[in-house]
Amino acid sequence: DTGVSQDPRHKITKRGQNVTFRCDPISEHNRLYWYRQTLGQGPEFLTYFQNEAQLEKSRLLSDRFSAERPKGSFSTLEIQRTEQGDSAMYLCASSLIALGDSEAFFGQGTRLTVV
Amino acid sequence: DQQVKQNSPSLSVQEGRISILNCDYTNSMFDYFLWYKKYPAEGPTFLISISSIKDKNEDGRFTVFLNKSAKHLSLHIVPSQPGDSAVYFCAASRALYGNKLVFGAGTILRVKS
For residue B40, what pLDDT is reported? Predict the structure, then answer.
């Protein structure tokens, strides 16, 4: 396993279009997180899954955003009716929560540009 | 409400010397702290972590110190190498919060050769 994989690496879309990103976590990891990072800031939490259950969504995640993790494996993040303010790096991370704390491992991210 | 703060936007250090990156947090309920390193156009890479029950953790050239009473942690890199030049993010989490990470804004480290 080569780590967390995200696709695509870059996406340019016109305002109003829908986009979907994919994340493949490290295979044995049961937790999957989505973060968003804008220039000059640290990543901000969007949502997370434990196996296939979505356990929390940040208030940053408007109704235009939806995330799924069918069968507890890969995850998708969809943004409907994109706006210029959605331009950011979208990061996926996974971790194995077993007996306590566990570090999260990040993918290389998807850079979204809305024009 | 910025719960994790990295007050130094940048730090410049000579190769071979010590780099010290600082981080402050406000939420006393955090119980796990991590440092990540990030190169441009890549995702953050995990460096080192520390549980709130410890005050020091060491891994090779990297040492993290935690001062719970001051709500402060620091990352020491000794000796610094040019390849260490990157953005360093401090992050905090709590098991009861789903271990989601709260990040600082990052510190750009430049190691000069």
Answer: 87
Does residue A44 contact residue A88 with C-beta atoms inside 8 Å? no
DSSP state letters, A50-70:
ETTEEEEE-TTS-TTEEEE-G
Chain B interface with A: residues with Cβ < 8 Å:
4, 31-32, 34, 36, 41-46, 49, 51, 89, 91, 93, 95, 98-106
Q: Look at residue B95 in the predicted model and tell me its pLDDT.
A: 78
Using CA of residue B64, residue A41, residue B27, residue A109, what is the dihedral sign? negative
**CA–CA dist B59, B47 (Å, integer):** 9
Question: Which pLDDT tens digit goes with each residue over B66-80?
Answer: 999 999 999 999 999
- C-alpha pair distances (Å), B31 with each of B3, B57, B58, B83: 13, 14, 18, 30
Q: How many angstroms from the chain centroid is the CA of residue B11?
A: 13
